[in-house]
Amino acid sequence: MSALCPLGDIELVLGNMLLEPNYMAYYSSARDRGRCLILDNGVMELGYALSSSELFDLIDVLRPSFVTPPEVLHDGPETMRLTNQFITDLDRRRSADSVEVLGVAHGSSLREWTQTFDALATNPRIARIGIPYDVPFAVPGESERVDQLGQWAHRRMFLTEFVSQRYADRVKDVHLLGLAHPMELVMQSRHTFIRSHDSSWPVMAAVRGINYDETLMMEVPEKPFIKWDVPWNDGQAQLAAHNVAITRQVIKSDIEHRARF
C-alpha cells in the first residue's frame, strides 16, 4: 500500500477494512500527510453499506476529506432516503464541518437515475457526486454485441455526456466509482467536472502479468474487482507502478490534446 497508493491523487478508504491495524495505520498516516481521503461505505465489497453510526465512528477516528453515505445499489429512492437521513444526523455532530459528503447516484432506469442525480446536484450538502461503473439499465446507442464490461463503460459515458448537456457549466464535481475498462478514462477525460476516480485496474493487471502500453487496450479480467488475497512480489509491484504511470500519462496526453483544439 505504501508503495502504490501514493501514486494516485486520492485515497479510497474501504470502511469495512479499517478494523485491520495496518490498513488504519496507513490511512491515518496518509491523512497526516495531507492526502485526500474518501471514506467508502463498503457496499461493493460487502453487498451492503456500513450504517450511519459505523461511518460516524470512522469519521471521528480517521477524519477523511469525503464520506459516501449509506446506499443501496441500483435503488435511487432508497439511496436518497439514506443519504438525506445521514446528512441530517451528520449535521448534529461536531465532526460535520470536517468532512464533505460524496453522494452516489443510483437508479434502476434512466429516469430514476436522473431523478437521483438531480436531487444530489441540488442539495447544498453534497460536495461531489459518485457515478458507479455498473449501470444496470440500457441507454440509447448500446450494442448487444458488446460484452458486459463494454456495456457498462458505454452506459456511464452516456450518463456523463447526459450530465454535461443537462447542467452545462453548473454541474457539481463528479467521482467515477470503479471502472469497467481502462479505455473509459480516456473517453471521460473530456469532462472537466470529473474530478476523481478510483480503480484497481492497473494493480490487478500487474497481478496477471499485463504490461500496459499507450493504447491501454489490454486483456480484460472477467471481474473488475481487486483480490485481496493474491500473493505479491517486487516484480508485480514494479509492474503495477508502471501501469499506473502509463494510465496517468495517456489521460494527461489526451487532455492536453483536447486543449489545443
Automatic annotation (TrEMBL):
Superkingdom, taxonomy of origin: Bacteria
Official protein name in the record: Uncharacterized protein
Protein source organism: Tessaracoccus bendigoensis DSM 12906
